[in-house]
Design the sequence.
């Protein structure tokens, strides 16, 4: 694996940032999560006057061999069909990125289909879908390394110059199964707390999905080291996200973490390099079962909870304006002194 040297955030500026936040014309803490978000953004950029530049979202797509077991009600072909929808600008992530002026890049990390050349598609295929991890490892160690490296490279080269805030999305039929297996093995939480209905399984389908994943976990019970866990249960799009997240933190960017799948990639990244968590903004709590427990395990507080469970990076795109609000109040809101307003220390 590449060596990712992620710098721990300096605490030197903390007191100055907190002082700036607390002396705005408001009661302390009255802007809630926006205050802690402003503090985090200021710490990441090591400045009292942070700026958000050229926001970007990378959407990684890949297919999963575990779909052979019937873990999804949708056929595998939907992955490729949705990639084409992204390229035509018709998906939810396209809409929200246009709305908030976020640049969008779609990456074929391992879709089991061939695409015509398209300027909006990044061809980075590691393989034509992973293998069925209910029978063998999803990918080889070499393939996992290749996905890491490619993700890191794309993190450096895809966003516009000076991009300092980046989000991560995904598309891949079967990837909630991959994420649930990763979550269980990396956290040790009960499997039933990790597995949800994905794209819409009924109750009997959910029971079958849990049974399949339990057998797969039992088959690979000796696998515990984080990178091996990722190679065994992950998807090419998830592994590529891990590399992109790690490299983005090395570059000092704010990381916008989306829902269940993206958080499973982040979970793996944080097990490899724990310092990455200081750079992460957990944008929303997905309605997919397991996400709330994963966030709790990471001691992460999501910005919003809207009952979303689409993926694609949609939670990151929808939550991005909250970062803008946090930075705007920190930079533009008057202080008690500048506004000539008495703060509570001036009175009784």
Sequence:
């Amino acid at each position: 694996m590449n060596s990712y040297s992620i710098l721990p955030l300096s605490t030197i500026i903390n007191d100055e940032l907190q002082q700036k936040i607390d002396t705005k014309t408001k009661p302390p803490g009255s802007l809630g999560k926006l205050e802690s978000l402003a503090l985090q953004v200021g710490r990441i950029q090591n400045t009292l006057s942070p700026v958000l530049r050229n926001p970007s979202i990378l959407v990684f797509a890949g297919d999963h061999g575990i779909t052979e077991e019937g873990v999804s009600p949708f056929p595998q072909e939907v992955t490729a069909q949705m990639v084409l929808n992204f390229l035509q600008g018709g998906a939810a992530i396209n809409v929200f990125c246009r709305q908030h002026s976020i640049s969008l890049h779609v990456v074929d990390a391992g879709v089991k289909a061939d695409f015509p050349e398209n300027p909006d598609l990044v061809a980075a295929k590691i393989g034509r879908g992973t293998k069925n991890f209910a029978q063998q490892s999803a990918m080889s160690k070499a393939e996992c390394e290749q996905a890491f490296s490619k993700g890191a490279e794309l993190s450096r080269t895809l966003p516009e110059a000076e991009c300092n805030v980046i989000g991560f999305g995904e598309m891949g039929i079967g990837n909630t199964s991959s994420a649930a297996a990763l979550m269980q093995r990396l956290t040790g939480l009960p499997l039933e707390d990790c597995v949800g209905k994905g794209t819409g399984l009924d109750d009997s389908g959910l029971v079958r999905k849990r049974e399949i994943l339990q057998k797969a976990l039992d088959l690979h019970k000796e696998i515990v080291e984080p990178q091996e866990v990722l190679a065994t249960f992950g998807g090419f799009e998830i592994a590529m996200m891990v590399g992109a997240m790690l490299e983005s933190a090395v570059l000092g960017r704010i990381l916008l973490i989306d829902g269940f799948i993206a958080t499973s990639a982040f979970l793996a990244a944080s097990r490899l390099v724990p310092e990455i968590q200081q750079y992460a903004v957990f944008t929303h709590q997905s309605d997919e079962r397991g996400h709330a427990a994963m966030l709790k395990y990471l001691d992460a507080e999501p910005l919003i909870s809207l009952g979303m469970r689409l993926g694609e990076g949609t939670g990151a795109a929808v939550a991005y304006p909250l970062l803008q609000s946090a930075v705007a109040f920190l930079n533009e809101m008057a202080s008690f002194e500048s506004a000539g307003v008495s703060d509570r220390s001036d009175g009784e």
About this structure: The chain has one domain: 56-326. The chain has a mean pLDDT of 95. The two ends are 60 Å apart (CA to CA). Residues 56-326 form a domain with the Rossmann fold fold (CATH 3.40.50.10210).
